[in-house]
Amino acid sequence: MKLDTSSYYPKSPLDDDPELNGSAPVQPEPVADNSVVTETEEVTVAFDSADGTPAPEITPLPDNSFFTKLSHVLSWVLVPMLMPVYGVILAFGLSILAFTGFGVRLAFTAVVIAFNVAIPAIIVLLLKRIGIVKDVGLNNREERFIPFLVCILCLVGTAIFMRYKMAPMWLVMFFYGGAAAGVVEVIVNRWWKISVHAAGVAGIVALLLHMLMEDYCAPATEVWLIISVALAGLLGSARIWLGRHTLMQVLAGYAVGFCAVFFTTMIGA
Q1: Lowest-confidence segment of 9-18, 91-100, 167-176, 257-266 by average pLDDT
Q2: How far apart are CA 144 and CA 155, in angstroms?
Q3: CA dist 17 to 4, 5, 21, 27, 266, Å?
Q4: pLDDT tens sequence across 204-251
Q5: DSSP assignment of 108-133
Q6: Phi then psi for 190, rounded to 5 degrees?
Q7: Which of 2, 22, 42, 46 would bridge 55 by S-S if both were Cys, CB 3.0 to 4.6 A apart?
Q8: What whole-number distance in Å separates Cα of residue 209 and Cα of residue 266?
Q9: Residues 96-107: pLDDT tens digits?
Q10: Crossing angle between the packed helical segments 169-189 and 145-164, to the nearest 10 degrees
C-alpha cells in the first residue's frame, strides 16, 4: 500500500513512479569499475588553474637536511645581538686600537657584551616568560617592537660609554649607526618583515670598509672584509632557505645596515 504523504509534503510527480512506490523492482544502474568510490575513500586533486591542469607534487624539505642545519648554525652564530661584539673585537684587532693592552680590550669587550647581548637576552627571555614573545628568535614580526627598542637603547648606551672612554669617533659612530639602522627596522617592521640578520652583518662589512680608509689598519683587514662579505651572502641565503625572509627583505636589510653604519662612521672620521 502506498504511504499517503499529502498532508505534510507537497505532491510530487515521483509519487506515481512505480519504481519508487514499490510496485516494480529497482534496477541499479551499471557503474564502471574504475569510477567506484567507497564511503571511506577520499579523492583530492589539486589544480594550478581553471583549465584543469594538475598541480605538480611538492616534496617538503626535510628538517634534518645538511643545508637546513647549516642555515640554523649561521643564523645563531651571526645573530644580530652579536654584531656589536664582533665589531669591537675587529676594531681592537685590526685598527690603531691593536696597540692597546689586553686588559683594556677585555674590559671594553665585556662592556659591549653586557650591553648588547646580556641585557637584550634577559629582556627577551622575560618577555617570553610572560607570554609577550613566543619565539626567542623573534621570527614573528608582531613580537619585535619591544626587543628592538631595547637593542636600540643598548647600542646608544654603548656609544655613550665609548665616547666617555675617548674611543675613536668612528668606533663611537659604529654603535650609533647600528642604533640608526634599528630605528629604520622598527619603522619598516610595522608593515614589512625586514631582515635584521642581513642588516647586522652588513654593518660589519661597512665597519671593515671604513677601517680600510683609516690612516692605519692591519694587513689582515682586507682578508676579513672578504670573509665578512662571504658570510653576509651565506647568511642571507640561509634566511631565505629557512623561509624566514624573501630575497627582497634580505636585500633591504643589507642596504639599511650598510648605509646606516658606513655613513655614520664617515661623519665621525
Answers
A1: 9-18
A2: 16
A3: 14, 15, 6, 13, 94
A4: 999 999 999 887 889 999 999 999 999 999 999 999 999 999 999 999
A5: HHHHHHIIIIIHHHHHHHHHHHTTS-
A6: -65, -25
A7: 46
A8: 11
A9: 999 999 999 999
A10: 170
